[in-house]
Write a structure and sequence with these properties.
single chain; alpha+beta; 3 helices; 4 strands
Length: about 100
């Protein structure tokens, strides 16, 4: 970790707070800190093209998913590694009901 970057735990907490603000039941979720953003780069071949707000940013992707496998209700949160600003979200939410929300 570079000295001007937030710790992994801080970034995860920011992502959880962001999900909570969106109305997700975060107490029912686990998270994956996407080391080197490898998974998001597989999910989106070029996330910076999909999300221009990520271009030229040093960001960290965190994926939140439900412990009880709720199909299609995961959430990617993109956090600036230095400032903690939430740069954006991506959801694969396609569940037919709102049981994943508070």
């Amino acid at each position: 970790m570079q000295s001007n970057q937030l710790a992994k735990e801080e970034i995860v907490q920011i992502a959880i707070s962001a999900a909570r603000q969106l109305g997700y039941k975060t107490e029912e979720m686990d998270e994956i800190y996407d080391d080197d953003n490898k998974n998001i780069k597989e999910y989106f071949v070029a996330p910076e093209k999909e999300y221009p707000e990520l271009k030229d940013k040093d960001y960290q992707a965190v994926y939140l998913y439900f412990k009880e496998n709720v199909m299609g209700a995961g959430l990617w949160v993109f956090v600036d590694k230095a400032t903690g600003e939430v740069l954006g979200y991506d959801t694969d939410f396609w569940a037919e009901d709102d049981t994943v929300f508070n």
